[in-house]
């Protein structure tokens, strides 16, 4: 992403849901002039609206949705980093007596947006080089944090490849797609998805891993 003088030609937008995520990423990247970080609020509606607002105002070449997330047991442990291969709206569709019907099955659109897989792989390779635990795979977007055994089981059964869930990726990706800008989602795992127990969330640990993940961002974008 550099020109022949070694200057960056590309601009990168990082969208996070809360100030604590912005602050920790800022610590990792300090002041890289071609990267902006924006706090958008929680949930896909905030994510889509605020990403759109940024993309209307300025031109970007890559949008990154970053933050903490829940990991599926046995697929992404607390403190690991997950980089999306695809960003999937897991509750966009219809319930039916036969089971969940996704938007595609209803003929009503798309519930999945591809992430920039080449960047995902490159980023994962850099993190592995630094001995950081990293997974690549689908990350789900949900309006509601999963908090029961029943929902956890249903999601794991229906989406066996999914590594993690969060609440903003599909909103960010929908806005990015509208502007033809590549998108990537990266999350550090703060909790295991299951019956709600906020006391068990390791937010500090996850934020620290998010910082580690962004410490290599210049190498990933070079
Ligand atoms: O309380 C704090 O100090 C604090 C610091 C940073 C972030 C938070 C949040 O509560 C962030 C909310 C954000 O986290 C995502 N998230 C995390 N775990 C899950 C989950 O199991 N299921 C769905 N989403 C999750 C989500 O994207 C929220 O926007 C607090």
UniProtKB/TrEMBL annotation:
Similarity-based family: Belongs to the PNP/UDP phosphorylase family. Futalosine hydrolase subfamily.
Catalytic activity: futalosine + H2O = dehypoxanthine futalosine + hypoxanthine
Pathway: Quinol/quinone metabolism; menaquinone biosynthesis
Name of the molecule in the record: Futalosine hydrolase
Gene: mqnB
Matching NCBIfam families: fut_nucase (TIGR03664), PRK08236.1 (NF006087)
Swiss-Prot/TrEMBL GO biological process terms: L-methionine salvage from S-adenosylmethionine; menaquinone biosynthetic process; nucleoside metabolic process
Domain Nucleoside phosphorylase: 40-214
InterPro entries (alphabetical): FL_hydrolase_MqnB, Nucleoside_phosphorylase_d, Nucleoside_phosphorylase_sf
The keyword Nucleus belongs to this UniProt entry's keyword annotation: no
Record-level GO cellular component terms: cytosol
Pfam families: PNP_UDP_1 (PF01048)
Keyword list, A-Z: Hydrolase, Menaquinone biosynthesis
